[in-house]
Design brief:
111 residues, mainly beta, Ubiquitin-like (UB roll), two-stranded antiparallel sheet, 9% helix, 35% strand
Length: 111
């Protein structure tokens, strides 16, 4: 994958990365990558992120054992967001112990 077309500068050298199940299309989470974490992801086939709160690289599943294996990587039309389709090796993705990070539905009034 040629990463020269990715606009890392738009968000201070990081890029939002949507993680989605490759078979069901369930959205697992949103993380952030920098060039190094993306290169590590491409090289190993395991998801690596940049932690904004800890200011460090981390490999998903390193402590939990719930790994994400890359199946496909897509770049959006603006070149500033990634969609990575994965296979979950384990039972959940979210640090709360849930399968997905998107479990809290917000209510709204449709107009």
């Amino acid at each position: 994958m040629d990463i020269t077309n990715i606009d890392f500068k738009k968000m201070n050298d990081i890029i939002p990365t949507i993680i989605q199940d490759s078979k069901t299309n369930e959205v697992f989470m949103l993380g952030y990558m920098n060039k190094v974490s993306l290169q590590n992801t491409i090289k190993t086939g395991d998801i690596h992120f940049w932690s904004r709160s800890r200011n460090m690289l981390w490999k998903k599943g390193e402590t939990s054992g719930n790994q994400l294996k890359v199946k496909e990587i897509y770049l959006d039309c603006d070149g500033d967001t990634l969609l990575i389709k994965v296979q979950l090796i384990g039972i959940n993705v979210c640090h709360t112990g849930k399968r997905t990070c998107f479990t809290k539905q917000l209510s709204f009034t449709q107009k």
